[in-house]
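#structure-requests
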Amino acid sequence: MKKILLLLFTAVIAQAQTTPANADLFYDTKYLNGGCFRIPSLVTAPDGTLIAVVDERFNQCGDLKYNDDINIVMKRSFDNGKTWTAAERIVDFPKGQSASDASMVVDRVTQDIFLFYNYMDLVNAKGIFRHHVIVSHDNGKTWSQPRDITDDIAPANSEKYFRFITSGQATQDNAGNIYQTLVTLEEGVFVFTSKNHGKTWERFAGPVAPADETNITALPNGNILLNSRVRDLGARKIYVFNPEGKLISNEVKNDLIDPTCNGAMMLYDFQGKALVFANLHDQKDRKNLGIKYSTNQGKSWSEGKIIYPGASAYSSLAQTWDGNFALLFEKDGYKKISFTLLPAIWVFND
């Protein structure tokens, strides 16, 4: 741990700002007619552009199964979060069809950005979840038409399951394979993958249970680590698969307290490869958004620091081009989605 801290202090340019700075990014909800912005996803594009994506929920704040007018909207920043473009809809179906729960990943080989989301036709197929992917080849400027990958990634006979792809981030291993989690309330969490840069998709492993929304990270040794929200547990549960898809670890992590809420996890792209996790540091209430790190691939975690002590919920992490962290998170009872820059020195300095 000391070695990593030393490398950080010597590699990151000295900054006047050594504490988090933040700004509300999605907050003007008047035009939503009682709706809200929810479910953040954040990624750094290959050219350094920050891409922030959220649900735009009209008329009410209900989830996909209960709201027939949810779009996915995007803002971009070309200056590490100092300024942002106006919001633009990148997934917008006619009223009666909704899209929700975006997650993104950058393919480091092809430079493409994959965005997954869940879809429902509440007029003709209410209660039937479908799963789509869209792709950007130009750092988020434009996006492809949606592709339905439900039949490739969902378990057999699960058409009527309560089933969804976890929002936030997917992951890519050193071999270029992409992984993400698919949650079913009936069976547990599955992992799906593409081993050919998005040409085809397939189930990889699972299910594991108990588990709800599950953050996923490909570790340097090739293993796949799942960090799961579990109802009423008061802590996170960690599952680890080997590269062949065999479950090799299953452990409750009492040093990762949690009030049953989605978090954000990533591998810090620097010498030492620290695993970084943002979630709510409370066992009962959705508040105290904080951040922790692990230098031993999730076996133990730092004490952590609080980013926002007030009401908060879902979050999404990205690494900026200058080696720091960007965080997009829900706050103040789902009234706003805020963007925060976290200097690496602040995160890693215990």
